[in-house]
């Protein structure tokens, strides 16, 4: 059950303590408590309100950024000395309760590369198929339209826990995008299902939405029948500060979890008799490890933290996608087609419709169509750079379309507009995260270091040019009135990009998997912390490279497999 005060727990000892109730943590909590003999305590720093409209109404997701549901981290962008927000969910459900709901698994090449890199064939595309099915339950869209020709049922699961669906409200912009994909010989061909392992081209987007309502990991994996299990305890407002060694002389065996419910005034400790599962996400998981003395010993000592385990890769290899908002002024007076100046007034009307029937413009998530692109494979940049994408069927750029995204953009003009923005999916640049102070409650220092590689700058420039070609396609004639980026030369584009690039909000890699015995990485392919007993990391931080995808589905897949690995290790 869900409780708010540690005093309401009737024991301080559990088989497993899971830190963080986000995408991964809630999968683990659910799967381990399938066995009634296993006790699990899930500690979540944020709160939970099942009826929160900000969470439940898919069309409100842009408003979650910077809200009470956001950790509100600030990160170094890595260009022109700029800083920017790095939104992460601060609520049960984690970032799945505030994200854009886009469901993309990455390509078969992405997963096969994970298998190669870690030396564990269990991470290959073929091997993770059962975990995709355990997670996914494909459901009809909110408007119950006929979906034939919009996805391939053969590559989907219909019996998993988390609902995935197609758009429930059709935008004119999407009609134009799909029309473009039907043009013979087009550079942007139609792809029936971008989650088949082959993602290139234009397709209908899939989203984690059920019956017009967001399906977060809390709504799905912690739905009432699961959260009512007597062996599952969920403690809210529990901010975990450190993981503690089992005894003072056995410093590489960990079992204690320290947390506070009163902003650090008092610290409490619970014990995991089997394992601590760290699922606090790409930012907080390495932060908790560092706070605990697990990281680069020298820099920990400099901060006054006693090093317990020397793992220099903790917080390194931070890999984040780079997004450049690209707004287009459009010739349309239909308020459903764009994020226009009347958005606020319309929102009230749309919300009434949503409340009454779970239909209307607010039932859609962040994307209703996707476009995944390669860049020219014969470009001279490849003479000096290895391709950072996973292979020839994996995109380098995604065009992020936005139509009725009320609240996302500060309206640049009084005109009506849409977004078609390049997102660099497979960056070569790497950032890092370190502690700022030894204060356990301070935010860490996050440097995303976006576009620091010359390859990434090249890819983003070409991404802008690809978007321009797309918007010049015949179906958009008469609809698109004006581009809001005037830069054309490489130099002009670079300057515009440096000034405007933002975080793609899919960071991974700060507690990376690597082969057993490797001299880099933080966890083994079974997600156990290297050189330690009693800790496993299960969340986006373990992905050694970012997939060419929005990251929630990959994290669900990792967590579903992790649950099986844990069960196998303990014969559960
Ligand atoms: C605004 C936004 C939009 C996004 N859009 C999409 C999208 O459309 N599609 C997609 O696939 N992905 C999207 N993502 C990314 C996706 O949501 C994440 O990759 C995924 O949720 C990561 O899962 P996780 O388990 O690693 O972390 P999270 O889901 O972030 O969960 C971490 C949990 O740990 C908790 N926690 C952190 N620190 C502590 C602590 N010290 N003590 C206790 N608890 C703690 C957090 O509160 C949170 O609940 C988006 C993310 C954001 C922020």
From TrEMBL:
Catalytic residue positions: 506 (proton donor), 550 (proton acceptor)
Cofactor: FAD
Coiled coil feature spans: none
Sites where the protein binds FAD: 91, 99-102, 240
Domain Glucose-methanol-choline oxidoreductase N-terminal residues, every copy: 281-295
Pfam families: GMC_oxred_C, GMC_oxred_N
Tree of life domain: Eukaryota
One function term, GO molecular function aspect: flavin adenine dinucleotide binding
This protein's UniProt keywords: FAD, Flavoprotein, Glycoprotein, Oxidoreductase, Signal
UniProt keyword Chloroplast present: no
Family statement: Belongs to the GMC oxidoreductase family.
Protein name (Swiss-Prot/TrEMBL): Alcohol oxidase
Organism, as annotated: Dendrothele bispora (strain CBS 962.96)
Taxonomy of the source species: Eukaryota, Fungi, Dikarya, Basidiomycota, Agaricomycotina
């Amino acid at each position: 059950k869900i409780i708010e005060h540690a005093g309401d727990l009737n024991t301080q000892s559990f088989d497993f303590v899971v830190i963080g109730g986000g995408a991964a943590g809630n999968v683990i909590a659910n799967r381990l408590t399938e066995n009634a003999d296993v006790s699990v305590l899930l500690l979540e720093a944020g709160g939970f309100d099942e009826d929160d409209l900000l969470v439940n109404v898919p069309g409100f997701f842009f408003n979650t950024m910077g809200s009470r549901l956001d950790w509100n981290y600030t990160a170094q962008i890595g260009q022109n000395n700029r800083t920017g927000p790095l939104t992460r969910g601060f609520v049960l459900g984690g970032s799945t309760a505030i994200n854009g709901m886009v469901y993309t698994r990455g390509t078969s090449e992405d997963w096969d590369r994970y298998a190669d890199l870690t030396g564990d064939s269990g991470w290959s595309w073929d091997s993770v198929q059962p975990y995709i099915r355990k997670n996914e339950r494909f459901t009809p869209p909110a408007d119950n339209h006929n979906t034939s020709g919009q996805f391939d049922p053969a590559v989907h699961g219909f019996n998993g826990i988390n609902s995935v669906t197609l758009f429930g409200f059709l935008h004119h912009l999407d009609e134009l995008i799909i029309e473009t994909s039907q043009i013979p010989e087009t550079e942007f061909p139609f792809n029936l299902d971008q989650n088949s392992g082959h993602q290139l081209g234009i397709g209908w987007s899939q989203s984690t939405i059920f019956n017009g309502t967001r399906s977060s990991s809390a709504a799905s994996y912690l739905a009432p029948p699961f959260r009512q299990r007597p062996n599952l305890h969920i403690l809210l407002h529990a901010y975990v500060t450190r993981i503690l060694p089992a005894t003072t002389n056995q410093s590489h065996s960990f079992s204690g979890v320290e947390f506070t419910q009163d902003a650090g005034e008092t610290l409490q400790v619970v014990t995991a008799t089997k394992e601590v599962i760290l699922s606090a996400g790409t930012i907080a998981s390495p932060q908790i490890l560092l706070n605990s003395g697990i990281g680069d010993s020298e820099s920990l000592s400099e901060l006054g933290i006693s090093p317990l385990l020397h793992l220099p890769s903790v917080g390194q290899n931070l890999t984040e996608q780079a997004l450049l908002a690209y707004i287009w002024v459009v010739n349309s007076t239909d308020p459903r087609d764009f994020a226009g100046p009347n958005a606020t007034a319309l929102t009230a009307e749309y919300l009434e419709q949503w409340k009454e029937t779970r239909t209307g413009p607010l039932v859609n998530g962040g994307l209703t169509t996707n476009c995944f692109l390669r860049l020219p494979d014969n470009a001279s940049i490849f003479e000096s750079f290895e391709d950072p994408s996973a292979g020839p069927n994996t995109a380098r750029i995604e065009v992020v379309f936005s139509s009725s995204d009320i609240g996302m953009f500060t309206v640049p003009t009084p005109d009506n507009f849409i977004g078609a923005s390049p997102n660099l999916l497979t960056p070569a640049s790497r950032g890092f995260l370190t502690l700022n102070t030894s204060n356990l409650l301070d935010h860490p220092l996050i440097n995303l270091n976006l576009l620091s590689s010359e390859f990434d700058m090249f890819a983003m420039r070409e991404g802008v040019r690809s978007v321009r070609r797309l918007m010049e396609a015949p179906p958009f004639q008469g609809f698109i009135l004006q581009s809001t980026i005037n830069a054309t030369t490489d130099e002009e584009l670079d300057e515009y990009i440096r000034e405007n690039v933002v975080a793609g909000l899919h960071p991974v890699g700060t507690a990376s998997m690597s082969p057993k015995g490797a001299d880099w990485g933080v966890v083994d392919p079974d997600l156990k912390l290297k050189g330690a007993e009693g800790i496993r990391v299960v969340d986006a931080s373990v992905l050694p490279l970012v997939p060419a995808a929005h990251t929630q589905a990959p994290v669900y897949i990792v967590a579903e497999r992790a649950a099986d690995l844990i069960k196998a290790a303990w014969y559960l």
